[in-house]
Amino acid sequence: MALINDFLSLIYPRQCEACANNLFKHERYICNYCKLNLPKSNYHQLIDNPIIQTFAGRIPLANGCTYYLYEKSGRVQKLLHAIKYQEQKELARYVGLLYAKELCDANSLANVDVVIPIPLHKNKLKARGFNQSEWFAKGLSEGLKKPMETVLFERVVDTKTQTKKNRYQRWENVEGIFALHQSESFSDKHILLVDDVITTGATLEAAWLAIKSVPGVKVSVASIAFATKA
Ligand SMILES: [Zn+2]
C-alpha cells in the first residue's frame, strides 16, 4: 500500500491546501511551513480581543477565539475555499484537531461543556451535502474531548429566502432563525458555538438569541478564520 501511495504521489503530487506547494510524504493537508506561518490569532491567550469586541453589547462571551486571521487572496482564504467548495470534510476536521491541540496546550476553553456548530438549514444541507462548520467542530470536539451536539440546535429559517426582504424586515426575522430544542438540558452549561468564518457576527448573534433565555447558560465562540475590519 505504501508503495502504491508513493507511486501515486509521483504522478499526482498531493499539494498543501493553503500554499499549493507539493507535500512531503509525512505531511497531511497542510505543509509544515504553513502550519507554522499561517496567520494565527492566538486570541484564546487574550482576555480581551477583537472577537470579544466585535460582540460587545451583543453577546456576553466567556471567550472568543479563532484559529486564523482571514487575509483576502491569501493562504487562509485558499484553505477555506478548499473546505467549502471542494467538500474537504476531513480537512475541516483536521484543522479543528490542530486548533484543539493549541487550545488544550494553553488550557483554553477547558470548562466548555458542549460544542455546537452553527447548523445549515436542511434545504441548504441537502444541496451542499455537508456543513463545513460541523466538520471543523467535530475536530474541535474530538481534540478538546467535549461532546458535540448537532440535533438539538436547528436552523429553522432558510435565510436565503430572506435576501429579497429589506434590512428592517430581515432584522425582524433574525429572532426566529435558530431554535434550541430541549433547552432545559442546557441550563448552567457552557456552550462553544462554532462557525467557519466570523465577519460581522450576525449569524452568531442570531444563534445567541435562541440560547440566551436558558438559565445560567454561558457561551463562547470559535471559528476557523476571523475577518478583521481593519
Ligand atoms: Zn503550505
Radius of gyration: 18 Å
Mean pLDDT: 90
Per CATH, the architecture of the largest domain is 3-Layer(aba) Sandwich
Largest sheet: 4 strands, parallel
Estimate the strand proportion. 5-15%
What report would you give on this structure?
- The protein is an alpha/beta fold.
- The protein folds into two domains: 1-37, no CATH class; 38-226, Rossmann fold (3-Layer(aba) Sandwich), CATH 3.40.50.
- It contains nine helices and six strands.
- The chain has helices at 2-11, 32-37, 50-54, 75-85, 89-105, 122-128, 132-144, 167-174, 202-209; strands spanning 64-69, 114-117, 153-155, 178-180, 190-198, 218-226.
- The strands form two sheets. The protein has a four-stranded parallel sheet, with helices on both faces.
- Strand 5 (190-198), helix 9 (202-209) and strand 6 (218-226) form a beta-alpha-beta unit.
- It is globular, with a radius of gyration of 18 Å.
- The model has no long low-confidence stretch (mean pLDDT 90).
- It binds zinc ion (ZN).
